[in-house]
Amino acid sequence: MRRLLSVLFCVLAASMSALAFAGGGATVEAASAAPTSAAVANLPAATLKVLNRKIFEFHATFLGVPPIERAARARTNIEALLLEGGASTVSVTSVDQGRLVEIDGRMVFLVAPGDVDPLGRQTIDEVAAQAAKRLQQVVSETSEGRTLEAFVRALIASAIATVVFAAVLWVLARGHRWTQRVIVHAAAQKAESLTVAGAVLLDKQRVFTLLRRLLAIVRWFLVAIVSYEWLSFILSRFPYTRPWGEQLNEYLLTTVFGIVFGIVDTIPGIGVAIAIFFVARFGIGLLHGFFERVSSGENSTRWLDADTMPTTRRLASIAVWLFAIAMAYPYLPGAQTEAFKGLSVLIGLMVSLGASSIVGQGAAGLILTYSRTIKVGEYVRIGDQEGTVTEMGMFTTRIRTGLGEELTLPNSLITGSVTKNYSRVVKGRGYVLDTVVTIGYDTPWRQVEAMLLEAAKRTSGILQTPSPRVFQTALSDYYPEYRLVCQAVPEQPRPRAEVLSLLHANIQDVFNEHGVQIMSPHYMGDPAEAKVVAPEQWYLSPAKKPEA
């Protein structure tokens, strides 16, 4: 009868929200007529912690009391019972409303059905048993913390651990110095022996610096691990800080095992990716073999020649590698994570926004290569610049003027400009020479043409077959314009500017020999005499009159 009255009193007190659960061991047993536990939506869960140790997490509202209030009352009950001391025992009693967790037969809190995850695999009995086990550990640690003997043992263990910790740090410091003295010097000696074409591959001082930094990183990593374990051990010696020490150990083990299992899980994907890259490498080897046979003349194709083969081989290799990367991408570690996807999107956006000009230059380079507009070794004029093509890249083309200058022209500039090629009509590594002179109308044009041809004949490197030719390209107001066009294939490789300079020198000599001034008259008024050539002077030397 007294038990029933106690239960009724507890139910009434809970419904009024005025008194805490502090009744006897079966304070809820007679509440079968009251409403069962029910969860209230949108109320946050409350965690019951005692001495830094998590005991239980309340989710349901019971008899109008929200989870946070239930946790506060349970904590008050536990602390009150722990203050009484003694050899306390935690037990679980089954009632209609759930499971009572008790200390020495006195209820501290109720595990309601709403506190159990309906989607979980645990029953209410298992959840209550786990809560009771954790509470029993708190009770035991409280009793341990009240004894001087346990406190002294914890201090002694902490002191011993600190001495061992200091000894380990001393060993690490000594080992670090010994490693620097032995390994670094040995690696430096090995570095001096690594040479390529007589040049040292690795600088000794850089090897020293790199290895010292690596050893310092390893040392401080070991110091951090030892310090972490020392702190975890010290915290685990005292009841109040023991949960912190256990959490440190659990976090370290969880991290280590997570890394290990993560590496193990990625091994199959990495294996597939490596296999894909090996297949790609094998395919590139086959392509290179084909291109080498084309280069040596064993195979011949209409669409591929010696000028386009290097670019075609490079493009084929890039295409194979891009295809391999696309195939291996899903198997790479972390490829399906949001961070990896975000990084790939960011890189793609940066390339789209910032590489438009680069893509245009590359496309222009491909156009120049496959249209065969210019080739390496040809003498060309691009806009106002002219010279011999020395290098054709994907983005730029280099030409040498022969005047001690090397010009770097963007490929997009070349494709957008008029290009004159002086070497395409000449067999071999030659080029076309042309120069313009303007002489007054009072000088016989036949004489001028003969003198220009004589100057071309005297110039070393200018071919006589096909023979040089002179064209009258304009009849201006004061003078005609003569253009000498010839082909030059010098016996020794000489820039076009040098051969053109020799031609100009010979033109001056020939004109001086025949008393003809290389001058273009400009008149401010009518001349006193007509500037015409009499027929008897048409064939002045060195012009020759054609035979009848």
Can you give a write-up of this model?
With 548 residues, the protein is an alpha+beta fold. The protein folds into four domains: 2-145, no CATH class; 148-240; 362-421, SH3 type barrels (Roll), CATH 2.30.30; 431-522, Alpha-Beta Plaits (2-Layer Sandwich), CATH 3.30.70.100. It has helices at residues 2-16, 67-84, 124-145, 148-193, 204-237, 242-296, 309-328, 338-354, 356-371, 411-415, 445-458, 496-513, and strands at residues 46-50, 53-58, 90-95, 98-103, 106-111, 195-196, 199-200, 379-382, 385-392, 396-400, 406-410, 419-421, 431-438, 469-475, 480-488. The longest helix has 55 residues, at 242-296. It is elongated and about 145 Å long. Residues 1-41 have low confidence and may be disordered.
Can you give me a brief rundown of this structure?
The chain contains twelve helices and 15 strands. It comes from Candidatus Proximibacter danicus.
- With strands numbered from the N-terminus, the spatial order across the biggest sheet is 11-10-9-8-12
Q: What global shape is seen?
A: elongated
**Compute the gyration radius: what is it?**
48 Å
The percent range for helix content is 40-55%
Q: What is the overall pLDDT average? A: 79
- N-C termini distance: 158 Å
List the secondary-structure elements in sequence, H or E: HEEHEEEHHEEHHHHHEEEEHEEHEEH
Largest sheet: 5 strands, antiparallel
Could you say which structural class the secondary elements and strand pairing correspond to?
alpha+beta
Q: Specify the number of helices.
A: 12
Q: What portion of residues belong to β-strands? A: 5-15%
Q: Which spans of ≥5 residues are poorly predicted at pLDDT below 50?
A: 1-41
Q: How many domains, as an integer?
A: 4
What is the strand tally? 15
